């Protein structure tokens, strides 16, 4: 049924000029009938991308019940008009729409928007979608099926990067990780091993992990949520089909995340999950990144570093790395040795897929098992 204005009566439209609500208030799930999947779509100045994004939602081949939950985070373009134009078509297709937002001078941020879109939705499963990306027709169906089998996991998928060839190494990493590496490579600089624009998970698991951080610009809300999910025993699963066109452009939210913030989060998680279990270890790389990791460790974990190892004869000939900034007396001096003389376990601080296979070959020659004898921190 539709109202006098032609809008379906079960559509909820809450766009207003009110200021954003308090950022840490608890918001219950929207009452009403329970749906299978809610597509969670935060929007900020996304009118350029929305037609293609929403058309892809319309063409999903999922046969269950589905809704689109949109939160417009103070867009200053015509995003709202584009969303309204598509809502009727979506309703006719059986995809109910829930639309809200605010007109404050400043946006609340990505975490804030996602939390609001989740709170107003009804689906038992949450499919996160960025406004500048495009779903393949089978995305919701295949990831929903995987999530039903893995109810405490974050479900991702393979992607196609657009423009083609942009972030080539990163895209290859996203798509080529083995099921085991989805858990062992969570400390690398790439971030979550299944990227946020591909996430689908159960509402129950989302609520158990907790909401996204609402710190705003520069805060990696996806990495924080991902790490908390792992802390709570959550799994990571990837559907090995390309289900998303993942766009790269200068206005993407990921461009605003501070590298130093991510570095410190990774160090803290590595110390919590790995180094706390090791009595001693070797840092693989006596160069800039290896020394930076060493300096970032707690005093207790620095004392566990038995050596740096490397293949660079110039570094090895120096014999030691001295931590000159340390306030300890005497200042710590850590041996530098060839990797074949070093003892596992290792924290590997050499970038993956950047040495022509040299790093990977050296690790393979030692008959080591990733996740047991070494972890990548690159």
UniProtKB/TrEMBL annotation:
A Pfam family per the record: Glycos_transf_2
Gene3D superfamilies per UniProt: Spore Coat Polysaccharide Biosynthesis Protein SpsA, Chain A
Annotated Glycosyltransferase 2-like domain residues: 38-209
Xref: InterPro entries: Glyco_trans_2-like, Nucleotide-diphossugar_trans
GO MF annotations in UniProt: hexosyltransferase activity
Region (Disordered): 1-31
Record protein name field: UDP-GlcNAc:betaGal beta-1,3-N-acetylglucosaminyltransferase-like 1
Source species: Scleropages formosus
Gene that encodes it: B3GNTL1
